[in-house]
């Protein structure tokens, strides 16, 4: 409809039994059911695609937002204890505060596990297992690329 508020749209599913009784305007008039039967967006490729198309039929309806806003009442503070200011602080020191040893170990383990499973299916043979230092460099490079752009 023309007076629809775009910020409050909600998708609702319609069963395949109900779709025959819904006309092109979205109303549920049984006298227009012949028009609805003639209007179809399904492509007959195979049985599986027909089932997917039939199950994804639905209607857009207006929904009023009744969620209330919760004000942020906590203090904004850093939850990690930074190194003493009297010492020389390098970017790697701050980076290490946020990327814990355990997280790096998990990334290394899963990267190597994935590579062991997938590399054997390819022609690539020069790959070697990743280590913590290599993953640290990769994550640092990704962060740097995000900052520079």
TrEMBL record:
Residues spanning the membrane: none
**Location of region: Disordered:** 17-58
Pfam annotation, one family: DDE_Tnp_1_7
Q: Which domain of life is it from?
A: Eukaryota
All residue ranges annotated as the PiggyBac transposable element-derived protein domain in the record: 91-148
Protein name as catalogued: PiggyBac transposable element-derived protein domain-containing protein
- Per the UniProt record, the source organism is Halocaridina rubra
